């Protein structure tokens, strides 16, 4: 054994060293790949920014040129509108009045935004209205002279003064004697600045710069004041994109924010480093886990059997193991009535989450560990203790007398109340709610015991916690639950022993044109031969999911009974289906198999569904109904009128027959409102081409009223009392 352990240790050390080298190599490769990916991503992002800058400059250029063209068109249109006034100003020249000039200027400013002033330039490039406009030409002389000389305004640029900045447009004068003369208009550059801001993207700075004066900034989207500023060649090298604007002395320039590229690389490197650290830690963590697993493999193999049956935190029996003990105790009692039944306690610590939330899960685990150790010392040697869940314990005392069960439960409650952990505050004391079940003849298996314990604990908590609740008490909730548990086991045993029986009740045709049929009713026979009505077992079967097995049994045995009665080949039968059965997506295939097995005609079967079950499982109900109707069966809507949504859902459900809720039928001979209600249902059924069945026909007067109204079928004790139809009770 020592040699084997040594060989195992050497082999595991070699494997671990190899794994360690692989971890280091993987960490280096991941680091290099992440750095490469960071620089690649940054480069791709910058290329994307360059493509954006190309698109931005194209849009700005297009809008600038369109703006200038629009201004020239508007100037020409204005001259046509104000031709007489402009001609008069031209003729009067130095004698023109300020009022005449201002009238034209105000009109121009109202029609063309950002207009500052206008003037008339003669063939010599001189302004003819200097006495009104002042001598503005020195600032604009170069542009005016080049325009007069060439006949075209080839270059636009901004004119700056200490107080203002503007640009000029010169258009040929439209007057009759305006040859070689120009209409001069000066504009504020506000829109030029707005267009730069409009197309500015994040991390970008846009500039309008002079093409003929290197480094001269005209306009910019930056908050820095670049007025009359020149930027050096170093800064010019930072511009990512530059494009000239045709017919101007301007060029558009774009550069990324100075900190953008550096931030991009820094963020990329930071992310790469973070990812590398996380991945490296994960790889290292995996390596550590593998190392621990390898080193503890032999020990784990020895502990597997123990852990399969015990709680890892406390070392107590787990729920599966505890269920085995309970079933063994119940089996021993059934085999030998002299065996003492025993008592089972379910302890649920009240508000245990407060410990975890206030002091941390480590303190909570310490509390549970201390509680488990204390229980082992507190309880008798024959006690079996289990931890069922995070804050739940269970105790089985095989020989505790019934009379002492409650007092002992209180001792357990006080035990938990006295537990403290050093990390908790002195005034922090947890309490426990305890459910108690006496193992007697009513307990059939561990599942029922746990269900009963759960009910008892829940009731103890509802009553205020820190309490003991005996399941075998006179509390109404527990009595009701006990009856349900008894009913469930009786149904389960009845299905197993084939102790269900079928009754049938005639559904009489109230007119000679229709044929009568039967509704199938299920009953249960007790082992003593006592007939049990549906009200005593169907609700519990529906609540705890056994109703699907009951429905399947009814369908199969109805088909079996029909197949055995070879003399009756025409009678139709109605079978009730529950909501859970309708919700079963496999029910259609199962029913089809039964049709094929017993060779039953689908036309002889009508399935009855209630409005509530159909609405609750509408999608699956429609799926089953549509498929069964295509197969040849029909459907009846039972208890129609009992729900508020009956009429709205009636149009959605493909039913052939409407069964009127008996509550409206049983007293319609004395209750006029109910009679009117039945009449209205009949009218609706006729309009929708559906047959009607009235339930609870209890006397001849009601039958006569139903016949007069035109109801198609009647069902009730007056017509036919349910009769035993089919049974396979084993004697």
Describe this structure in words.
The protein has 731 residues and is an alpha/beta fold. Among the domains are: 306-473, Reverse transcriptase/Diguanylate cyclase domain (Alpha-Beta Plaits, 2-Layer Sandwich), CATH 3.30.70; 498-727, EAL domain (TIM Barrel, Alpha-Beta Barrel). Helices cover 51% and strands 17% of the residues. The protein contains 24 helices and 23 strands. The strands form four sheets. Strands 14-15-17-18-19-20-21-22 form an eight-stranded mixed beta barrel, surrounded by four helices. Strand 10 and strand 11 form a beta hairpin. The radius of gyration is 48 Å and the shape is elongated. The two termini are 65 Å apart. Residues 1-8 have low confidence and may be disordered.
